[in-house]
């Protein structure tokens, strides 16, 4: 991964944090893996794709700090 790519990916985390400050979170469904938005003041999240319902703690943030270092984004060249 290039430095530019790493910076661009880090920016996704920044933008996700900015959304969270406005009460909207981008998370992943732990059941079907879909990415969805939810309001941070909601007591429970219901996945619009599979119907899974649980508390926000069960839905991991889609972009979290340091995610760009994770193995998911490997250099192919
Ligand atoms: Zn789901």
Question: What does this protein look like?
Answer:
The chain is α+β, with helices and mostly antiparallel strands. The chain has one helix at residues 3-21, and strands at residues 24-28, 35-39, 45-46, 53-54. It has one helix and four strands, in the order αββββ. Strands 1-2 form a two-stranded antiparallel sheet. A two-stranded antiparallel sheet has the order 3-4. The longest helix has 19 residues, at 3-21. The mean pLDDT is 90. The protein binds zinc ion.
Please identify the structural class as seen in this structure: alpha+beta
Shape: globular
Stretches with pLDDT under 50, minimum 5 residues: none
Main sheet, how many strands, which sense, barrel? 2 strands, antiparallel
Using only C-alpha atoms, the radius of gyration works out to 14 Å
The total beta strand count reads: 4
Separation, N- and C-terminal Cα atoms: 9 Å
Mean pLDDT over the full residue set: 90
| Helix-strand string | HEEEE
Give the fraction of residues assigned to helices.
Answer: 10-25%
Number of domains: 1
Bound molecules: zinc ion
**DSSP helix count?**
1
Estimate the strand proportion.
Answer: 15-25%
Give the spatial strand order of the biggest sheet: 1-2
């Amino acid at each position: 991964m290039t430095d530019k790519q790493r910076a661009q990916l880090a920016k996704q985390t920044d933008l996700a944090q900015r959304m969270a400050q406005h009460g909207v979170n981008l998370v992943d469904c732990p059941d079907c893996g879909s990415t969805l938005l939810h309001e941070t003041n909601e007591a429970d999240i219901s996945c619009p794709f599979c119907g899974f319902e649980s508390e926000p703690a069960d839905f991991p943030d889609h972009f979290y700090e340091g995610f760009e270092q994770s193995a998911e984004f490997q250099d192919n060249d």
